[in-house]
Write a structure and sequence with these properties.
Layout (H helix, E strand, L loop, with lengths): L2 H20 L8 E7 L4 E4 L15 E4 L5 E3 L8 H10 L5 E5 L2 H9 L8 H4 L14 H5 L2 H12 L4 H6 L2 E4 L3 E6 L2 H28 L7 H9 L18
């Protein structure tokens, strides 16, 4: 990997990590973002236990996709690095991965419930419920726990790359959300959306419980909202500007 490209990837990963506390997605250091360079066979990730306020480009750790060994960096990588590595290896279209312990998404994960599609805000990003994994077994926890965490996500998605593209996130049972995207920035933005729609879903389900049940939206409405942002016929936004609704 050329030094310029590595520096660019470090800068992107640092910026995404610094947005975690700004977006209210983390308590203390409970969150991390990585970005991958597939040509070089490495990914860059936040170091373990370093506060966001103190984080610098030089602190970020470069890890080999092939075997998880540290290629560059003076600190230990995030303990979730092996989960990131598993997802990168399983889904070639992924360019960035984010993990947080944001409260509303974690609530669904702890309840072992997928985040349901209750409206168009959810459907704009996730073409279906955000799924929840099976519990890890005792054997999966005893050895290679973090890599096996990635494996249960892959299993929940049936190893389907298209599904991973259309539903760019999953909840690990009793743990929390992992999201991904084309790069580190996109992965972080999907984490922000995941938390937002989880909070909306909790409020909607609470209202539905009081008022007799939350109805399922029409599928054609959800499809329209997903396809206007994603796929060959997408028409949302402008390439050179950040667009609103």
């Amino acid at each position: 990997m050329g030094e310029t490209r590595l520096k660019k990837l470090r800068r992107e990963v640092l910026a995404a990590n610094l947005r975690i506390p700004e977006a209210g997605l983390a308590t203390l250091t409970w969150g991390n973002v990585s970005g991958v360079d597939r040509d070089a066979g490495v990914f860059v990730i936040k170091p373990s236990g370093v506060s966001y306020a103190d984080l610098t480009e030089e602190d970020l750790v470069v890890v080999a996709l092939e075997d998880g060994k540290v290629v560059d960096g003076r600190l230990r990588p995030s303990t979730d690095a092996e989960t990131h590595r598993c997802l990168y290896r399983a889904f070639p279209s992924i360019g960035g991965v984010t993990h947080t312990h944001s409260a509303h998404a974690v609530a669904f994960a702890q309840a072992r419930r997928p985040i349901p599609v209750l409206g168009t805000t959810h459907a704009d990003t996730f073409n279906g419920p955000v799924p929840v994994t099976e519990d890890l077994t005792a054997a999966q926890c005893a050895k290679d726990y973090e890599y096996n965490t990635g494996q249960v996500i892959v299993a929940r998605l049936d190893g389907d790359a298209r599904r991973a593209d259309e539903v760019p996130g999953a909840l690990v049972s009793r743990h929390g959300p992992f999201t991904w995207g084309a790069d580190a920035k996109a992965a972080l933005e999907n984490a922000i959306v995941c938390e937002a729609v989880a909070e909306m879903a909790l409020h909607t389900l609470a209202l539905g419980f009081r008022l007799g049940g939350a109805s399922e939206p029409p599928r054609h409405l959800l499809e329209r909202h997903f396809t206007r942002k994603h796929g060959p016929d997408a028409y949302y936004g402008n390439a050179s500007r950040t667009a609103g609704s």
